[in-house]
Specification:
- The structure is a single chain.
- With 575 residues, the chain is of the alpha/beta class.
- β14 and β15 form a beta hairpin.
- α6 packs antiparallel against α9.
- It is globular, with a radius of gyration of 24 Å.
Length: 575
């Protein structure tokens, strides 16, 4: 919530001291429409106890798994945040919308905002247009916004948190203090503590990063976690076993404990407020671990994520298992937008091609897909990933090594140990592969080779499997306009106006009808999202003509196309 930081700090201290404020939440008028909460943690693979991780200390999430269904084969559409979140919010594979590169605002040649096709809308906006109150806390990062903490188009969220306010990062029961206008709510929490930056320290970062380190330390100070013994952690075979690496991985597990406690708080508050039986809860993460050869790569370790869904019995589709069920069906993040809309009783738009898991008998996937574009300032690392039937196939358009220099990643101790050993020539064969140029094709047998160390693309024994995956990749790439082959600089140039500036949405036209007194609004920019307000602060989404309140004397109106600047605000006096 965008409020005064000092007030939030004092309020947060009160919340933590008293357990939380007891404010009455208005239940939705239509009791058969659920509230929906999506908890999307940062940079975290399936490192929960309920997913078999013996080091993890995650009792609240483990208990949730016993009350819901645990999904063991869920994959994101990218192994890094911005493209993954862009695909998630639109329900469209990000290379088909031009949002596949790692952070449009971080493009070193010319920072820009991504511009998806005009008809593509984020699912929170669709929820709003169908009667939901939508809220997201502190992380957005879906490319058509001004950086990771900018909420983007006004049409997406009824209210948002503030990333600069630590209290908004603690998964507070925001429904208690939001005026949801008697609507069902959708809340997207984004716990930040497991983000890659949560591993950084004052010692291994430059001074300009110390504010970020302090922010994570402030969060850690709020929770009583049990420090993880570095000797207990299990290291992946492609890392170098050093005390620094073990200490960093142990710190990661400490941060996971904090996420677990935050999820526990959400559950406790929902139950205290009588919302547990009216709320669908989804817990997952935005991509795999923040550690080397996980984040930024499209391997299983970079795109496989945990997911637990708890659905009150009255909303459960026929296929959904009983409490404590484990489900191994393939799920893509492409499916989340359609599923959330489906649970809200909304027919997903035709451009969303994901599977709607809210249906009683949803089809099952044979494959999931991921895409990689530019990664920070590294040379191009474009790749396609197809996973199914215990195999993963990779097509690399560029040969840049996965272990190429990425300044942000290089601050981590695990990566420093790898870089140091590589320079000294002391890496073993499997560790060294990360620094080798990528081949044109890769194929891995995930059952025999879960760490994906043995590329079998040239093995004649797997020629039939290879051809099957080649054919499937070709079929899938032809289902959309694959913008990963367009040079990013050219794409940016095409998005700008004739002067090289971000385009501006044209202001809409509005009139009040003489007969029925309703307000009618017309767009001048194709498929722009239109909002209206009677106070200039709270913007409603235009969804057809409406009668203004009797007390209103003026209505303000504006529009925005995703990735363009908002239009000027126009005002009309009411009759």
């Amino acid at each position: 919530m965008k409020t005064d930081p000092l007030y939030c700090t004092l309020l947060g201290a009160s919340l933590l001291a008293t357990g939380s404020l007891k404010a009455q939440h208005d239940q939705p008028v239509q009791k058969d429409i659920p509230n929906i909460i999506l908890v999307l943690a940062e940079d975290l693979g399936p490192r929960f106890g309920c997913f078999g991780d013996e080091v993890a200390n995650t009792p609240h999430i483990d208990k949730l798994a016993h009350e819901g269904v645990r999904f063991t084969h869920v994959y994101t559409m990218a192994g890094v945040s911005s493209p993954s979140r862009a695909g998630l919010i639109t329900g469209v594979m990000q290379n088909f919308t031009g949002l596949q590169h790692m952070r449009t605002k971080g493009f070193f040649e010319h920072p820009y905002m991504g511009v998806p096709p005009a008809h593509v809308k984020g699912y929170p906006e669709i929820l709003r247009k169908n009667g939901y109150f939508t809220y997201a806390d502190v992380k957005f990062d879906y490319q058509f916004c001004d950086g990771p903490i900018d909420p983007g188009p006004f049409s997406l969220w009824s209210a948002t948190g503030n990333a600069r306010n630590i209290e908004d990062q603690l998964l507070q029961p925001v429904w208690r203090n939001l005026n949801t206008k008697n609507k069902p709510f959708f809340i997207n929490y984004n716990p930040q503590i497991t983000h890659e930056s949560g591993l950084f320290t004052y010692e291994n970062t430059p001074e300009n990063m110390h504010a970020s380190v302090k922010g994570k330390e402030d969060i850690r100070s709020r929770y009583n976690f049990i420090p993880t013994d570095p000797k207990s952690v299990i290291l992946d075979p492609y890392w170098v076993d050093t005390p620094e690496t073990r200490k960093e991985v142990a710190r990661f597990y400490d941060n996971i404990q904090i996420v677990d406690m935050q999820v526990g708080d959400v559950i406790k508050n929902l139950k205290e407020d009588g919302l547990w039986d009216n709320t669908i809860l989804i817990v997952s993460t935005d991509h795999g671990d923040c550690l080397p050869r996980h984040k930024r790569d499209g391997y299983d370790s970079g795109t496989r994520v945990p997911m637990i869904i708890r659905i009150p019995e009255k909303y459960r589709p026929s296929w959904f298992g009983k409490e404590g069920t484990v489900d191994d069906r393939l799920i893509s993040f492409e499916d989340l937008a359609t599923t959330i809309l489906g649970f809200a009783g909304i027919e997903p738009p035709a451009y969303m091609t994901g599977i709607d898991l809210s249906k009683d008998f949803p089809e099952k996937r044979d494959y999931v897909y991921a895409v990689r574009g530019r990664i920070d300032r590294a040379p191009y690392m474009r790749s396609y990933f197809v996973l199914g039937n215990n195999y993963q196939y990779i097509r690399n358009l560029d040969d840049t090594p996965n272990g190429a220099t990425v300044a942000y990643r290089d601050m981590g101790e695990t990566n420093k140990a790898l870089n140091k050993a590589y320079k000294e020539g002391t890496l073993n064969k499997n560790q060294n592969k990360w620094f080798e140029n990528n081949p044109k094709e890769e194929l891995y047998d995930l059952e025999k080779d879960p760490y994906q160390l043995n590329n079998i693309a040239s093995d004649a024994a797997y020629s039939t499997v290879l051809e099957t995956f080649r054919t499937e990749l070709d079929r899938w790439r032809n289902t959309g306009n694959d913008m990963n082959i367009v040079p990013e600089a050219q794409m940016v140039k095409d998005l700008k106006d004739e002067n090289g500036n971000t385009r501006i949405t044209l202001p809409p036209v509005a009139v009040q009808d003489d007969i029925n007194n309703k307000i009618y609004i017309s767009n001048r920019t194709q498929d722009a999202s239109i909002g209206y307000s009677f106070d200039g602060k709270n913007w409603e989404i235009y969804n057809g003509s409406f009668l203004p309140p009797v007390s209103a004397t003026e209505v303000k109106i504006k529009a925005v196309r995703y990735g363009w600047k908002e239009s000027d605000v126009i005002s009309i006096s009411l009759k």
